[in-house]
Amino acid sequence: MLPEQRTDADMLHQAQQFVAAHPRGCLMQSPRWALVKPNWGHHLLLSHAPDGRLRGSMLVLTLADRGDGSALLYAPRGPVCDPEDHCAVKELIEGARTLAVGFSHGEFKCDPLIEEGESGAIASLTSAGLRFVPGAAFGQTSQPRQNVVRGDLAGLDEQALLSRLSYKTRYAVRQAQKAGLRCGPERGDAAFCDFFRLYLETGRRQRFATRPADYLRGLLAAFGKDARLYLCRAAGGQPLAGAIAVAFGQRLSYLYSGSARLQSDPGSGYLMQWELLRWALASGCAFYDMGGISTDPQESPSLYQLYQFKRKFAPAVSYAGEFSFSF
To answer: In the CATH scheme, what architecture does the domain 152-285 have?
Structure first.
């Protein structure tokens, strides 16, 4: 049985709620993510149990020509379902194969939130006919396999969470507060321009590719009140650090950031992370995902450097990686 392909408002709402409530849900599998990627096609595949209950969802982005004449079908952080529910997994992957018929040749990829030690989940996906290479090297997957994720937020209050940070990290947060830094969500063009300057400056300094302003504005618009632009300012108002994050379902995702990296900065990065964690708690999130890193300095010096800071707030998690088929 093939999954449904639905785009009516009621079903989009149901899929949004399903993905948001699922422990393996992610903003990149929200139907809203299609609004962030207007240059891609998008198809929402749904799997229902025999009793009519929605049991699986997969947003597939499609690119007819990725530069070499071949097509790419990509389900970022999907499918969202119990990965050991063989019927749901099989149905959703069959739906992707049906989509692929509309293209001459290419590849389907997905990278669900499955950790590398989850052998049952990996077996379920490979039994659906997906190709999988264990331990794929850095740079060989669309998303980094290693992320920094805090997964113990459910049921905590601020004091309990603060006590779980190291003494040095707590001290750095308090020093930033004592120095008069102000950190919180801001709106408007002036705030966005302040953030974007920091973001571009950081990209040049650390030599990573940056997104255009329109892309970031589109992301903020797509997720509305669930997306925030945070700025950390000195007592005089000078922007020192900024971040864009989205609280979607059980997961708050830290997506884009920048900093002035001034020698006189009394700890804006520490205060920024603490304020984002406070937002995660207030939103009822169980997970705080700080994004991709590398734990090997030889793989990526810049991402390893990021890891040295991020690890002060959350541990590293290694995901299984990509599953794919060619057509």
So the answer is: 3-Layer(aba) Sandwich (3.40)
